[in-house]
Amino acid sequence: MSEPRWLYWGHAVGLTLLALIHLPPVIGVVGGDSLQRLYGVAADDASLQLLLRHRAMLFAIVSGIALLGAWLPSLRALALLTVWVSLGSFLLLAWQSAPISAELARVQRIDVYALIVLVPLTVLAVAQRYGAWRGGAGG
User: Fold this and answer.
1) CA 69, CA 117: separation in Å to the nearest integer?
2) Phi, psi at residue 138, to the nearest 5°?
3) What is the pLDDT of residues 95-132, one digit of tens each?
4) Which residue, 13, 119, 135, 138, has fewest beta-carbon neighbours within 10 Å?
5) CA–CA distances in Å: residue 81 to residues 31, 92, 121
6) Could you please report the per-residue DSSP string of 62-119?
């Protein structure tokens, strides 16, 4: 390990937490009632249900990439970028779409809380990339 242990474990724990945050919506893949509970919308239309189920699969991908990046430093930048795109795009779209339902406002709050983890992880990754911890004792 070429980085201090605290940095490795900080990224591992932080990205694992972000992966877990993105995991609950994956249940939407099964459709029907799970989509209603997640988003507060009746997905009676087959096309809407397909889009929401596809969204659930994308959450599985985001979660998987974040989990891989948590434990494989070579994938950390990809993981951080993927989570930024996921959180940033939803927050921007939710902000542009106000007012939103209570269920989507809950998702928005969770994403804002996730930024509390994502921002420092990104700062650490950028600092590490530009040499802030090179040549240290690893401790």
Assistant:
1) 14
2) 90, 15
3) 999 898 888 899 899 999 999 999 999 999 998 888 76
4) 135
5) 28, 16, 11
6) HHHHHHHHHH-GGGHHHHHHHHHHHHHHHHHHHHHT-S--HHHHHHHHHHHHHHHHHH
